[in-house]
Amino acid sequence: MLTLKIHQHLLECGTDEAGRGCLAGPVTAAAVILPNDFSHPWLTDSKQLSEKKRQELRPIIETEAICFGVSHVMMEEIDQLNILNASILAMHRAIEQLTQQPEFIAIDGNRFKPYGKTPYECVVKGDGKYLHIAAASILAKTYRDDFMEKIHEEFPNYYWNKNKGYPTAEHRNAIRKHGPTPFHRKSFKLLPEQLKLNF
C-alpha cells in the first residue's frame, strides 16, 4: 500500500520523469500535488501498470489533483546538458507550472538540484512508495508516450508507437538501416558501432 506523501502536514508535490534511457524523443517530467484524502486502488508505479490502466488513471489524476505540471525537455537540450541534468530540468519546469507552489518536493530517484529554497527529498523507487510520485510517473509516461505516437507518424520506420524510443533490437535495426532522425539524441550511443554513423 502506497503512502500519500512524506510530510502529511505540508503542501507537497511528487515528481518523476520518463524516457531517460531512450535513444529518441524528449525526457518528460511531471509534478503533482494530491489532496490529503486522495486514494485510488490502482495507483502505483507506472511501470507496474498496463498502458490501458495508465491511460484510464491519467484523467482521474488530472481531475482530482490540486494541481499538476508536465514538461518535455527535447533532444537538443539533452545533448547539451546530458540526460541527468535534462531530467532534473524537466522536473523543475514541471514544478514551475504548478498553480500552487509546494512547501516540499518528493523526487523519484537519487539525484536532484535545489528548486529555489524549497526543501526536498530523493526517494529511490519512490513511485512504488508514495502516491504523488506514482501519479507523477503516470503523467510523465503517458504524455511522453503520446509525443512518441505523434512523431511515429512522421517516421514510421522506427516503430516509436511500440518501442517509445527505447533501444529495442527493432529500433536499433531501423537506425542501422535508415540512419538517425532529428528526434534521435546525438549524444547517445545509438548503435554499438557508433563510429559508422555519420551525423
From TrEMBL:
Among PROSITE patterns, the record links this protein to: RNASE_H_2
Q: Which reaction does it catalyse?
A: Endonucleolytic cleavage to 5'-phosphomonoester
- Coiled-coil stretches, from where to where? none
Q: Which residues bind a divalent metal cation?
A: 16-17, 108
Question: One GO cellular component from the entry?
Answer: cytoplasm
Q: Which GO terms describe its biological process?
A: DNA replication, removal of RNA primer; mismatch repair
- Return any one Pfam family short name: RNase_HII
Which is an annotated GO molecular function term of this record? Answer: RNA binding
Determine the domain of life of the protein's source: Bacteria
UniProt lists the family membership as follows:
Belongs to the RNase HII family.
* Name of this protein: Ribonuclease HII
